[in-house]
Amino acid sequence: MSDSVGDEATRIFAEHRELLFSIVYNLLGTVADTEDVLQDTWLAWVPRNRPGAAAITSPRAYLVRIAVNNALARRAVLARRRETYVGPWLPEPLVSDTPEVRDSADPADPALRAESVSMAMLVVLETLSPLERAVFVLHDVFGYPHAEIGEILGRETTAIRQLAHRARAHVHARRPRYQADPRTQRAVTERFLAAQVGGDVNALLELLAPDVTFWSDGGGKSRAALRPIQGADKIARLITSPVVTGVPELGIEHRWVGGDPSAVILSGRSLFAVVVLDIDPDTEKVRGIYAVRNPEKLTHIDA
């Protein structure tokens, strides 16, 4: 392949890389696997740019199709990996210093990053079948029409519509359509952390919904609960215990995960955890706490 052809192939792939990363991350929930899928997509893309290869009329459509189908194949590997995972599994948090736009005039715009999907939504997406998740992500998150999704997945449009209906009903039954305002999320997150660090159980109980759930992902590599914990009183007493709050040289940075205000917890200069709260937009109560402590899921985060 000549340098000019190779440069053009690289330029086109780079132009669509953010979109591909965002779609695949929403299908897999892990950064390393997403990068692997993008590498496989690149390897499939390069031969299609050699002299004599059939012309591709829509590079974006081709790259998305290859990336999505590679991601679906990778889901089977992830499913086997999860069978031996210790404790609750949470997606790897994509942390940024500034908020990402949740909505876009063009949801398929490459500028829309994976951060636009919340941690809470990613957890719900884990309960879908791989095909349902692919259809939901492509249609509801990125705005692809059913017919185009059918072309990507090699299925009839009517089948895609049925998958979309089932996936949407499943998601909406477990996840309200509206999220709290980011300013409210930031304020509640700050109050929550202040109460936790200060050991103020009563202040926490004022913030927590009665049926709040706490997910703690240590992956067997860091201390964490081996199953989700429910109930405000139980959680408030657990997270104010010295075992949880006794972090040496505790530091807290307020950053963003999935378009939501979050907290990066430091122990000295080392990453200790990423904490994201799911807040009810009507009551402004915390209905979900997600704490990622598995060090392997924090390696890509800049402290």
From TrEMBL:
The keyword DNA-binding applies. It comes from the Bacteria. Keywords: DNA-binding, Sigma factor, Transcription, Transcription regulation. Interacts transiently with the RNA polymerase catalytic core formed by RpoA, RpoB, RpoC and RpoZ (2 alpha, 1 beta, 1 beta' and 1 omega subunit) to form the RNA polymerase holoenzyme that can initiate transcription. Residues 120-170 form the RNA polymerase sigma factor 70 region 4 type domain. Residues 13-74 form the RNA polymerase sigma-70 region domain. This is RNA polymerase sigma-70 factor (ECF subfamily). InterPro entries: ECF_Sigma-70_Domain (IPR052704), NTF2-like_dom_sf (IPR032710), RNA_pol_sigma-70_dom (IPR014284), RNA_pol_sigma70_r2 (IPR007627), RNA_pol_sigma70_r4_t2 (IPR013249), RNA_pol_sigma_r2 (IPR013325), RNA_pol_sigma_r3/r4-like (IPR013324), WH-like_DNA-bd_sf (IPR036388). Belongs to the sigma-70 factor family. ECF subfamily. Pfam families: Sigma70_r2, Sigma70_r4_2. The keyword Transcription regulation applies. Gene3D superfamilies: 1.10.1740.10, 3.10.450.50, Winged helix-like DNA-binding domain superfamily/Winged helix DNA-binding domain. The lineage of its organism: Bacteria, Bacillati, Actinomycetota, Actinomycetes, Mycobacteriales.
